[in-house]
Design brief:
The protein is α/β, with parallel strands linked by helices. It has one domain: Histone deacetylase domain (Arginase, Chain A, 3-Layer(aba) Sandwich). The chain is built from eleven helices and eight strands. An eight-stranded parallel beta sheet has the order 2-1-3-8-7-4-5-6, sandwiched between helices. It is globular and about 55 Å long. The termini are far apart.
Length: about 400
């Protein structure tokens, strides 16, 4: 068994909305370069495999046939504006080869999930994936095909009966929640900036799952300005107890790193260190609860040089069972590449010097504190549906 199946080929850089768009594929290129120079991708047990694009039959397990036709038409004619299907907008402009590039991302995530489910690999990672906003019949939020939903559907079709999805992107994982809102086999947990201040405007604690699947959707809506200590307090107060109660067979996680304090599109204030800590804990939970079966993707992240490559290299290192000391220097070759290509000063170390200390929920909460109000709202909404006491 491989330690980790990494879905990667340079063709994944082709998911590119064009100059000036925030979702610049250079972020995944720099991630892979950094991970390779740090020796992670060449380590024993790490299989790097070029994905095949998802075929139409697979894409139709989540997306409508009419939407696939619309994406193909827009892919052939990038001047298309199809608002019914969310194509040709500022967020999701059309580009030549859009269908093929999007299908390749989806194929990579599904391949990683299948490797984990079959036992070929303990873990699976696609840093180019995590396109969690795409809806069954429309593009949304920089996302054309919803690769996490497609991979989870593939796991269910392969025989999984309990899949947990944890989304730590700063934006609500609305597309994945929508696909499985009425499916009691899938638990979706999203920690995100409150929808009162950030796209997509969903992800309130009251969204708990449809009829027959009550408690299958969990949303932690965090106040702007939440940093490492507050975020980790919320994470520990919600995620481990729910996963332990739910007992998933597979853990699927989306790791948008746009919760970072330097991200230009949102308002949380985590450091690389806080983000790395969440990856570490999720990895531990996969081993505790799922015999190690863990599938992870990238997601959002718009500090293209300063944050994304370091965050997702930590993710790859943890998935490879070779976690990096946060104080590790970034390799000189990688720094030289960044300086030459972008005329920017690259990060010197794999840390921001942040602390991962936090106050546990069991120590008591302050009902006047906005963060504690958010945590309390989520626990009150969903814990009783899982037989858990929302208070200690």
């Amino acid at each position: 068994m491989d330690t980790v199946h990494v879905a990667w080929s340079d063709a994944l850089i082709g998911y590119d909305f064009g100059p000036g768009h925030p979702l610049n594929p250079v972020r995944v290129d720099l991630t892979i370069r950094l991970a390779r120079e740090l020796g992670i991708l060449g380590a024993d047990g790490v299989r790097v495999e070029a994905p095949a694009p998802a075929g139409d039959d697979l894409l139709r397990t989540v997306h409508t046939a009419a939407y696939l036709d619309a994406v193909k038409a827009a892919s052939a004619d990038p001047s298309t504006v199809d608002l019914e299907h969310g194509l040709g907008t500022t967020d999701d402009p059309c580009f030549a080869g859009m269908h093929e590039a999007s299908a390749l991302v989806a194929g990579g995530t599904v391949a990683a999930a299948r490797a984990v489910w079959s036992g070929a690999a303990a873990h699976g990672v696609n840093v180019a994936g995590g396109l969690h906003h795409a809806m069954p019949a429309s593009a949304s939020g920089f996302c054309v095909y919803n690769d996490p939903a497609l991979a989870i559907r593939a796991l269910l079709d392969a025989g999984a009966t309990r899949v947990a999805y944890v989304d730590v992107d700063v934006h609500h994982g609305d597309g994945v929640q929508a696909v499985f809102y009425d499916d009691p086999r899938v638990l979706t947990i999203s920690l995100h900036e409150t929808p009162r201040t950030l796209f997509p405007g969903t992800g309130f604690p009251s969204e708990v799952g449809g009829a027959g699947a009550e408690g299958s959707a969990v949303n932690v809506a965090l106040p702007p300005g939440t940093g490492d200590a507050g975020w980790l307090r919320a994470f520990h107060a919600v995620v481990p107890p729910l996963l332990r109660a739910w007992k998933p067979e597979v853990l699927f996680t989306q790791h948008g790193c746009d919760s970072h304090l330097e991200d230009p599109l949102a308002h949380l204030a985590l450091t690389i260190d806080g983000q790395r800590e969440s990856y570490r804990i999720l990895h531990e939970l996969a081993h505790e609860l799922c015999d190690g079966r863990w599938v992870a993707t990238g997601g959002g992240g718009y500090a293209l040089i300063e944050v994304v490559p370091r965050a997702w290299t930590h993710l790859l290192a943890i998935a490879a069972e070779r976690p990096l000391d946060p104080a590790t220097p970034t390799p000189s070759g990688w720094r030289a590449h960044v300086s030459a290509r972008f005329d920017r000063t690259p990060p010197q170390r794999m840390t921001d010097g942040g602390s991962v200390a936090y106050a546990d929920w069991s120590d008591g909460y302050d009902p006047a504190d906005r963060l504690d109000q958010a945590i309390h709202a989520t626990r009150t909404a969903v814990f009783p549906l899982h037989g858990l006491d929302p208070s200690y």
